[in-house]
Amino acid sequence: MLTTSDSSYEDFLSSYSSVIGEMAAMGLAPSEAMSRFRTIFPDAPIDYLNHAISTGEWIFVGRREQPINNVMMASALWYAVAYTLDLEPDYSYTVVNIDPTIMQDVPRMLEMGQVSPESIALVMSKIGAALDYLSQHPYTMVDEATYDEMLENLPPELAEVDQDAVAWPPSRQVITDRLGNGSWSSALLRIGICPPDIDEIEPSVDPSSISEREFRNVLADFLSYCIRYDRKPAVLLYGTWSTDRDHYGKVPTVSAIRARFGSWHNGLQKGRKLINDAVSMGAGKALPVSSTKDWNTSLSIEELAAEGIGVIESAGTSAEDFSASKRWENLVNVMVSRLEELPWMQTLRIYYLSPEVVEAEEYTPFVSVLRAPSGYLCQLTPADAFENLRFTQDTDYLFAHGWSAPDESRPSWTHNFLNIHEAAHAVINAMHFSCGADQVDYYQSDDPVAAPGADVIHPGTGSIPMIVVPEPTVSIDTES
After folding, report:
1. Contact, 65 vs 28, CB < 8 A?
2. pLDDT at residue 459, rounded to an integer
3. Which of 23, 396, 460, 463 is the most buried (most CB within 10 A)?
4. Residues 37 and 23: beta-carbon distance below 8 Å
C-alpha cells in the first residue's frame, strides 16, 4: 500500500519505469528484480517498486512464484510453536541469539511479500521466542492439525503477506514433501521440534544424552562435511546431515543440541572451542597413539609365538562363525572404533605383520591416518619405500578409488578430507586390494586407549592386533 502522494509515485515511474520494463523483458522473477533494484538503487522507495510490480503493467516471469527455501519452511514451523503456545514476542533474545541465516532470509522474503517493518519485527521476535522456548522444552510438539488450524486463522502479521509474491507460510503438504522428504516427523526433527511419534523412532531429543566429548567428535565430522562440500555450518544443514542414512540415530538431534547449549549458534561456538582445545593439546607434532616399547633385540617368529602374539582367545566365538565376509566387516568396524578414539592431530599407524614381514623385520607401517578438523588424512606407503619387502602395488585400483599418487611434495599415496567411515573403508580396501594384504589376523595398529588386546604388544612396532581369528579346535583321539 502506498503511503506517499501519487505525484511522488509518478516521479518514481519517470525515473525508473524503463529499468523496471527492461528487468521484466529479461525474464526476471519479481523477487530477483526487487533484490537487484534495491542493491543498485538503495535510496529509491521500495514500496513504490512493490506497487509497480503488483499493478500488472509489467509482466514478470513466475508472478505467482514460491521463493520458499528450507529456512522459510522451518521459520513457519517455529512460528507455529509461538502461535500454539501463545508466546509473547521476545525482541531481546531474537536480536542476540537467532541464527544469522534466519535473520537474513526471513526478513528479506517478508519484504518481498510487502509486509510492514513492524510486522516483520513481530514475526521475527515470535520466532525467536519459539526458539528460546524450544531450548528449554525440547519435547515441545506441533502436530499437523495444529499447523492447519494456524493456516486457517492467520494472525494479522501473517495475513499481510502478499501470497502472489511470497507463498508463506507454506502449506503442510509443501513442508512435508520438501523439508521432510514425505514425512512430517522428519521435517520437525530436522529443525529441532519434537515429532509427535518421538517414542516410536530412534533419535533422542534429550540434552543429557550429549557428552562434551561426543559433541566435539560429532561437530568435527559435521564441519569436515561442510569443508568438503563448501557449505556453511547452518542449523538446517546440520538437521539434514544428522537425519541422513549414515547419521540417523547415531548423532545428537538439533533439539538436543539446542537444549544442551541454549541455541545452535552457542552450540557451534562451544563445539569449535572444544575442537580447538583438543588440537592445541596435540599441536606439537603428529604422534602415534601410544609410545612404542623399547626392545633391545628382535625376536624370532617362534619367540613371538611364545609371547602370545597372534594367538589371543576370542571368547564365545568359534572359527566357523568367521566367514570371509564377516571377518572383513569386523576388521572395518575395528578400524572405525580406533579412528574414533584417535586424538586430534595425531596419527594412527596400521601394519600388516605376516610371517614374511616379521621374518624380514620390515616394520614400516602400510598406512598412517591423521585426524584433523577438516577430516581424516590417509597416507599409504608406496611399495618401493619398504626396505626389506618386495611386492607389487595395484596402482590402477588406487587411482580408481580416489587416491592421489606420490609426488615431490608428498612421498605417499594420499586420500584426504574423509569422514570416519570413508577413512576406515579406504584404508582396509587399499591394503587388501592394492597391496595383497588378504589375512585379517595379520592387521595391527597403534594401541588406542583401552583397546581389546592391548596386553599383547608387538615388540618391533608397539602395535596390537586389530582382529584375531580363532583357530579351529583339534581333537586328539587317544584311543588306539
Report:
1. no
2. 75
3. 463
4. yes
Residues 6 or more apart from 298 whose CB is under 8 A from it?
361, 459, 460
**Confidence check: pLDDT of 423 > 90:** yes
Q: What percent of the chain has pLDDT over 90?
A: 32
**Element holding 445 (H helix, E strand):** strand 443-445
Peptide bond preceding 169 in cis form (omega within 30 of 0): yes
- The type of residue at 215 is F
**CA–CA dist 467, 310 (Å, integer):** 9
- What's the CA gap between 101 and 145, in Å, rounded? 28
pLDDT at residue number 169: 94
pLDDT at 45 over 90: no
- Residues 429 and 421: beta-carbon distance below 8 Å: no
Three-state secondary structure call for residue 277: helix
Q: How many CB atoms lie within 10 A of CB 144?
A: 14
DSSP state of 380: E
Cβ count near 293 (within 10 Å)? 12
CA-based nearest residue to 35, from 119, 117, 109: 109
pTM for the whole structure: 0.53
DSSP 467: -
Q: In the 8-state DSSP scheme, what is residue 388?
A: S
Percentage helix, strand, coil for the chain under 3-state DSSP, each rounded to 5: 50, 5, 45
C-alpha radius of gyration, the chain, whole number: 30
